[in-house]
Structure formats: structure tokens, C-alpha cells
């Protein structure tokens, strides 16, 4: 699609109006004036004197009574009507074929003014066009500064710091952030932007399981160091996580929610800018979403399902990256279940144990829906000494896959379809190991090993200290 939905609707409405005007012009031109009334065919002056066919205005003779009663058609109106109708038909056709891009030739200032009136969704739009111009370096410093001011103001439907603001302007502000050099005066202003944090709750959920949500955070600071995130109000003690802005798995953070969940939870975030200065942010995450609709999850297991998991999803070696963090990675392909008909309407939630001679070296929870095939995972346990043996012992490794209902239910978060089944079963399969070169990026979220001691400093330069 070359025009976003809002702009497409506006253009379509304007095209219909222009087509209606053209139709009106053509009909009036064909019908003409003074139909059934005696008038001069040359100047359209009324012939009031009965049986007198000479026009008192221009002096020309009508020729006959029939010609004096004939409608005086307007050729110019007919031609304009045909032109407008043809243009409207062509425009509607091009909209249907998605061949119109109205943004490429618009100036930067006009595109910036259009931002509040565009949805920001779709493959193109003012946001997409400005983002491409930023990537190509086509915006000067003054234009980038004006664009930054426009983005940080937001609008009535997308206030700064809200998930709506992130969805509408997030892509553009990230492109703007990448286009700014470190010595640019605009660079430090990105560190002042508050991260956007929100919790997504499921639409459908089994009543007998504790509710589960997915926390998502988007940062705009230019620092490369990880952020410390402290979440309060979910457990007796605050939860502390490390958030990596550059990561290999941009997945939200899965969190169990208490039965009597509060209206909101406070999240404290400490970021570090390029100069090493720490900045402290506080965000309240709203949990007042409507309660999910109750469903039941029934187990389902077939040989076709197990075959798809064995030969499609987990048919990859465990990799050891000497320079990675963490150095061990398990590759899997959830799209293999989308191609398997047996997994229709069946959630997948598995406990994956990496075994070295029946000893658990690593345990992970992985969940996804075959329809979306977008998996999320969490590392439950790692045994560093056993995993270190991967360097020297390539044999004796295996995977134990176990389907569990409480893990599969997590895949309901973000799903619009009320799944009724989950895969239940267990099997063990041998797996190869491989040593790979290159740096592997860390996961987006990891649990902090030590609880940092948070000390609130002044508003400017406050920090979370260990």
C-alpha cells in the first residue's frame, strides 16, 4: 500500500466529490437552458413575442419554432464534466491498484504538518516518507530540529510517553535519533525523552491459571549501556531487570500478575547517556484493562505434532559463541508448526531442557501460536559449569521437550483468536553442538543477579546505584 489508510479515505472522499461535480456539469450541459421555452438559439435570450422568431437582443433569426423551443446545450460544461469524471475514475482506479504515492513530492514542512492527521500505520505515509528522507540524509539541521519539536509535542490522540504515541511516532523518532551525530546539540535531548512502557493483557485466559502479561519498553536515549529497570507492586519484593537496547530478540518481558492486581504499577528506569551520565525515569504502567474472557484449554497430541517439533522446530544445533552474551544459544523455528495442519487452533508452550548425560545444563520456556508463529521465551535455569563443557564435549547432548499447559497459555497474550487446545507430550532427542564465530547480541531482558540499591537523587542526574 502506497497511501496510509487515513489519507486514502480523505483522497477517496475528495475524488468522489470531484466526480459528482463533473457529473453535475455534464448533465446540465446536456440538458442545456430554457428547455421547452422559446429562446434564441444563439444568445439564449427569451423570445417573448408569440410567433416572432427574431431575437430582440442579438437580432438573429431562430429559423423555426422547433429550433426556438430546443434546449441550448452547453458544450463547455459537457467537456469539463467528462474531464472531471474521467479524472475521478482514474484516481479511484489507481487507489484500488495502490499506485498513488502523494508524499514523495511534498516538501518537508508540509509532511511535518500532516503528522498529527495521519495514523502512522501502514507501509507509507508522512512518517514513512520523513523516515526515508532521514535515512538518506536529506533533512538539514533546522528541519530535523523542527521535526523533533513536532514529535515531542504529540497530539490529542497520541500524547508523549503513551503507547499510542510510540505506535504513531516511534518509528520516525528512532530514525531521527540515528540521524543525529554525537556532537549535535540535538543529541542530548533524546536522553531526556521518557521511555514508553505498557503492559499487554490477554483477551482470553483460563480461569484456573494466574493471569500473565507482557511488558514492553521502548527507549529513545542514545546511550549504548543497558538500562536498569525496577518494577514494583507485583511481588513482595521489587523485581529488577537489565534491558539491552541493542539485542538479538526484541521480545516483551513476560510477567505473572497477582490475582488482586493494582490499578497501575510503578516502573523506575535508569539509563546512561553517551557521556556516562545517569538519568532516572519514573513511569506508571496502567493495568486497568478489561478482564479477559474465560476459556478452557484442552490437551491435544498426535504423532504429526511431535514430528513437526522434532524435524522442523528444534532440528538445529546448540551454538556456542565464545564472544557472545550469553555464549550459548538455542535456535528454533516456530514457523514449522504453521505449515503443519495438525497444529491448527493449538497453542504450543514447551519446557526445553538442554541435557548433558541426563543433567540439566539449561532450562527454557518457549511459547507461541502456530497462526502467528511469533515465539517468546524465558530462561529459567542455567548451569554454567555444564554449559562450559560444550567447548570440549560435542557429544552426549540432548533436548527434552515437554508440553505444559501453563506455558502454552502465555501465547494467548497478543492473540485475537480464542484457542481451545494446547500441545501436550514429552520426548527426548539427541542434538548436535556447534562453535560459531562472531559476536552475538544479548537478549532484550535479563534478570539482574543482584538487587541494586536505588537512591533518588535530584531530578536532574538522579540515578540508581549499586
What does this structure look like?
It is a single chain. With 466 residues, the chain is an alpha+beta fold. It folds into four domains: 93 residues, no CATH class; 83 residues; 104 residues, Immunoglobulin-like; 138 residues, no CATH class. The chain is 28% helix and 24% strand. The protein is built from twelve helices and 22 strands. Strands 10, 13, 14, 15, 16, 17 and 18 form a seven-stranded mixed sheet that branches. A five-stranded antiparallel sheet has the order 8-7-4-5-20, with no helix packed on it. Strand 14 and strand 15 form a beta hairpin. Helix 1 runs antiparallel to helix 3, helix 4 crosses helix 5 and helix 5 runs parallel beside helix 7. The longest helix is centred in the N-terminal third of the chain and has 27 residues.
Specify the structural class: alpha+beta
Low-confidence stretches: 450-466
The largest pleated sheet is described as: 7 strands, mixed
Q: Please give the share of residues in helix.
A: 25-40%
Q: How many individual β-strands? A: 22
Number of domains: 4
Q: What is the CA-based Rg, rounded?
A: 33 Å
Shape: elongated
The residue-averaged pLDDT reads: 81
Distance between the termini: 50 Å
Strand content: 15-25%
Number of helices: 12
Give me the secondary-structure topology.
Elements: H1 5-31, H2 65-69, H3 75-97, H4 108-114, H5 126-135, H6 141-153, H7 163-179, H8 187-190, E1 196-200, E2 204-206, E3 212-218, E4 227-231, E5 239-243, E6 253-256, E7 264-272, E8 278-286, E9 293-295, E10 298-300, H9 303-313, E11 318-320, E12 328-330, H10 335-338, E13 346-356, E14 359-368, E15 376-382, H11 384-388, E16 397-403, H12 405-408, E17 421-423, E18 426-430, E19 433-435, E20 445-447, E21 453-455, E22 463-465
Parallel strand pairs: 2-9, 10-17, 11-19, 13-17
Antiparallel strand pairs: 1-3, 3-6, 4-5, 4-7, 5-20, 7-8, 11-12, 13-14, 13-16, 14-15, 16-18, 21-22
